[in-house]
């Protein structure tokens, strides 16, 4: 039985990069899906109306209007509209702070154009963390029961080893443990930790990060009561036997964990930011500029992000 509408949470849906698929995904979402929430789409009203009409849909009914700086063409990013993109994020954050919204769901944005504008921008995760003064955000990707967190996020591969430290890994394990318990309702989370090197370093023959950094961090986490184990070689960490004994996996870098996640759940996987004093979920894909305005983009991941946000909201309400 559906919950009474009076209990439905209000969620901010930011429409993302105006030249990308975000605006039309929002239109698809509200045209083809129904949710037990009040979903408010943040974006330029004319943009959302135009993109919806191009793909044969009605525009979203619930729009919080934020004006573009300059008209946006599908597939053509423009640095002049970067302040607009950031306006959407700031408005969503402000809405959570004043209890207008219970969660934020984000459509994709284009990081490179934001950086080109002069704003030092690493992504939604880091932006929301800075805005909420959160010391250690963690990116978690979810596809059904598969949960993969990242020790490092958007870094060149050559920068990953130097970004790993005992302190950072321990902080990540603490955030995972806390939020898996408190946001996902897992009473005693089991966290499988991947190694960095092939064969998890082969006892130091193929790298010593496992010996000097990863294993000590796991030991300290265990001493704090966190059920973390490993390091497990990444080429066997995702086999069914290992997955069966873990509630979440901590991968050392972006392309160690995400190819598996996207193979298992592309199109319905969700990006969740742990370590924030708010609920934020997002899609598992980018702006797909080549698909913008064609109607061929699939809103499945965005729909899954909304559904997960609703579940996390109700779990939060039940525990408060």
Q: What is the typical, i.e. mean, pLDDT?
A: 95
Structural class: alpha/beta
Succession of helices and strands: EHEHEHEHHEEHHEHEHHEHEEH
Overall helicity: 25-40%
The domain count comes to: 2
Tell me what you see in this structure.
There is one protein chain. This protein has 320 residues and is an alpha/beta fold. It has two domains: 179 residues, 3-Layer(aba) Sandwich (Isopropylmalate Dehydrogenase); 138 residues, 3-Layer(aba) Sandwich (Isopropylmalate Dehydrogenase). 40% of the residues lie in helices and 16% in strands. It is built from twelve helices and eleven strands. The chain has an eleven-stranded mixed β-sheet, with helices on both faces. Helix 2 links the parallel strand 2 and strand 3. Helix 1 packs across helix 2 and helix 7 packs across helix 8. The two termini are 23 Å apart. The model has no long low-confidence stretch (mean pLDDT 95).
Give the SSE map.
Elements lengths: L9 E5 L7 H11 L5 E6 L1 H10 L8 E3 L16 H16 L5 E4 L4 H6 L7 H8 L6 E6 L2 E5 L9 H4 L2 H17 L7 E5 L14 H15 L3 E6 L1 H4 L2 H4 L4 E4 L2 H12 L4 E5 L5 E3 L17 H20 L1
Parallel strand pairs: 1-2, 1-4, 2-3, 4-11, 6-9, 7-8, 7-9
Antiparallel strand pairs: 5-6, 5-10, 10-11
Q: Can you give keywords for this protein?
A:
320 residues, alpha/beta, Isopropylmalate Dehydrogenase, 11-stranded mixed sheet, 12 helices, 40% helix
């Amino acid at each position: 039985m559906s919950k009474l509408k009076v209990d439905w949470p209000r969620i901010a849906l930011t429409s993302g990069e105006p030249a990308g698929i975000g605006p039309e995904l929002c239109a698809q979402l509200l045209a083809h899906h129904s949710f037990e929430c009040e979903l408010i789409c943040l974006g330029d009203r004319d943009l959302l109306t135009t993109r919806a009409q191009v793909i044969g849909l009605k525009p979203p009914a619930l729009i919080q209007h934020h004006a573009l700086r300059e008209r946006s063409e599908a597939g053509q990013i423009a640095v002049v509209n970067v302040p607009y993109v950031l306006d959407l994020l700031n408005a969503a954050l402000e809405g959570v702070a004043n209890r207008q919204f219970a969660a934020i769901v984000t459509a994709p944005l284009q990081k490179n154009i934001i950086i080109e504008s002069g704003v030092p921008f690493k992504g939604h995760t880091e932006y929301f963390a800075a805005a909420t003064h959160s010391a250690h955000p963690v990116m978690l990707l979810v596809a059904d029961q598969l949960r993969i967190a990242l020790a490092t996020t958007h870094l060149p591969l050559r920068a990953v080893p130097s970004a790993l430290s005992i302190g950072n890994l321990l902080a990540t394990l603490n955030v995972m443990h806390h939020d898996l318990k408190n946001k996902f309702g897992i009473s005693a989370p089991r966290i499988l930790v991947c190694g960095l090197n092939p064969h998890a370093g082969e006892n130091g023959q193929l790298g010593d990060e496992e010996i000097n950094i990863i294993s000590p961090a796991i030991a300290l986490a265990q001493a704090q009561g966190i059920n973390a184990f490993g390091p497990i070689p990444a080429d066997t960490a995702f086999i069914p036997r290992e997955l069966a004994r873990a509630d979440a996996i901590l991968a050392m870098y972006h392309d160690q964990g995400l190819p598996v996640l996207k193979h298992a759940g592309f199109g319905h996987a969700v990006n969740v930011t742990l370590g924030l004093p708010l609920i934020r979920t997002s899609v598992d894909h980018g702006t797909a500029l080549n698909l913008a305005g064609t109607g061929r983009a699939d809103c499945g991941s965005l729909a899954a992000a909304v559904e997960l946000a609703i579940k996390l909201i109700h779990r939060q309400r039940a525990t408060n």
